[in-house]
Specification:
Blueprint (H helix, E strand, L loop, with lengths): L1 H35 L3 H29 L1 H19 L5 H29 L2 H33 L9 H13 L14 H19 L4 H24 L8 H4 L2 H31 L4 H8 L1 H19 L2 H20 L7 H28 L6 H31 L9 H40 L1
Helix pairs in contact: 1-2, 1-4, 1-5, 1-6, 2-3, 2-4, 2-7, 2-15, 3-4, 3-6, 4-15, 5-12, 5-14, 7-8, 7-15, 10-11, 10-13, 10-14, 10-15, 10-16, 12-14, 13-14, 13-16, 15-16
Length: about 450
């Protein structure tokens, strides 16, 4: 039991720390711009370098952890993350900040690809949902308090001090992982295919940048074509080498995993736009301050944080596929409510919709992860958790791609400002309508997998 608690505690601290550092940086951008003299493009890379590095190497790192050890990879990842968090606080230019953030993303990828896998390995089937629910709650907690704590510390001691906050929990995380006994190396002695890793990295980079750059078709479309070519080559190579980076059978022969991964992609594609659009709506259309807008937007992640452990416990007792479908159904209702938001919508209505979205996301996330991790063999836990994290990134990128395309059509290159509010509100309607329809498709995918899951359970368990 001591090993169980140490593993869960280490994974929980790490699950909080990585998103906390991601969300806290967003509130620091104006101060970083002022001190380092950064341009708007450079500021976007302060955030983008971290996310792109994370998405690009998640799967290769997951494969390496199966070869060399998940516990070892987790500890090295914690070390890398803490060390470069310290380096970020000591940067001398915006270029060095971008590089350090990218290196920090390497540590984050090593953590995320192994934390869930270790917890899934240690906890038995009847207690796994609760443990995964706790991890999900820690993720949402980190996302929700990151801007508030980051803003408070920045006002008190400067933006560099925020990165010192990650040092104590990072060190605690390392010692908790050190206490774990044994190692998990399901692919011991197998080779790592470097060419597959390069092809996968090119696919991710081109896909993410292509989706988020669709407002400039001359850039976005060639990148997406490059992603398609790299993806085809990656799949082809995975089918002919003895030790592939990713077994294609996870998608071609495991329908539960395939449909669950698709549900994850759709869920993040349809819901990620909410926070971005409402942040602009509250500050530009309603005229609220950033702090006031932040206090309203925090409703969703706070509800998610409180309900995720409950959803995890329910997943241990009831069919997690149906719970996840219910959660996505609530997200559909929330998105339909968002479609009706206009300049006269009161804050109580927005708050209730955000609370409903938070409830829906909580009911989806932990049960969905329970289904995914239970649908694969233990040797594939790291790859499965890496793929889920990658699907989240693709989903968020697709969501931003939709936003940029609609903004380009309705705002014609103009910024979101008081004089363009009518065009912005029209854009919101189109985006939320699209997201609601997409989320309905996600509910269908989530419901269909229940039938496949019943057929696969005896084989997997």
């Amino acid at each position: 039991m001591q090993s169980h608690l140490a593993a869960l505690a280490a994974a929980a601290v790490a699950s909080f720390l990585v998103p906390f550092m991601l969300s806290a940086v967003a509130i620091l951008l104006p101060a970083i711009q002022f001190e380092l003299g950064a341009t708007a493009v450079e500021l976007s890379w302060v955030v983008g370098s971290y996310i792109l590095t994370l998405a690009t190497i998640l799967l290769p790192v997951g494969r390496l952890s199966d070869i060399y050890g998940r516990r070892r990879t987790f500890m090295w990842g914690t070390t890398v993350f803490v060390f470069f968090s310290l380096c970020v606080s000591l940067v001398w230019s915006v270029q060095s900040l971008i590089v350090m953030r990218a290196l920090q993303g390497i540590g984050a990828a090593m953590i995320l690809s192994t934390a869930t896998a270790i917890v899934t390995e240690i906890y038995p089937q009847d207690k796994r949902g609760r443990a995964l629910g706790i991890l999900a709650a820690c993720v949402y907690l980190g996302l929700s308090i990151g801007p508030l704590v980051g803003g408070f510390i920045s006002d008190l001691a400067g933006w560099r001090a925020v990165f010192f906050v990650g040092l104590p929990p990072g060190i605690v995380c390392w010692f908790l992982a050190y206490r774990l006994q044994g190692e998990w190396r399901p692919s011991r002695g197998e080779n790592f295919d470097l060419l597959s890793g390069i092809l996968y990295g090119v696919f991710v980079l081109c896909c993410v940048k292509g989706l988020t750059g669709l407002d400039h078709p001359q850039i976005g479309i060639p990148l997406l074509i490059g992603a398609l070519i790299a993806g085809i080559l990656f799949i082809r190579r995975s089918q002919i080498i003895p030790y592939p980076l990713m077994k294609m059978a996870l998608f071609t022969h495991n329908r539960v995993f395939a449909m669950s991964s698709l549900a994850t992609l759709i869920n993040y594609s349809s819901t990620h736009a909410v926070g971005f659009l409402l942040s602009l709506y509250l500050q530009v259309a309603k005229g609220f301050s950033p702090m006031h807008a932040g206090l309203i937007l925090i409703i969703q992640p706070v509800v998610q944080s409180f309900l995720s452990p409950v959803a995890g416990m329910l997943a241990d007792r009831f069919d997690p596929s149906k719970l996840a479908s219910l959660g996505m159904g609530l997200c559909v209702v929330g998105l339909v409510g968002m479609y009706g938001v206009n300049i006269d919508t009161n804050l109580w209505t927005i708050g209730l919709i955000l609370a409903l979205m938070g409830m829906g996301f909580a009911l989806f996330a932990a049960p969905n992860m329970t289904v995914i991790m239970s649908s694969v063999e233990p040797r594939d836990y790291s790859i499965a958790s890496s793929l889920v994290a990658t699907m989240r990134t693709f989903g968020m990128s697709l969501s931003m791609g939709v936003i940029t395309v609609v903004f380009g059509l309705k705002l014609h290159g103009q910024p979101v400002a008081p004089d363009t509010v009518p065009g912005f509100l029209a854009s919101m309607e189109i985006i939320f309508a699209f997201c609601a329809v997409l989320c309905v498709v996600g509910v269908f995918c989530s419901l269909v997998r229940s039938r496949f899951r019943l057929a696969q359970e005896p084989m997997l368990y």
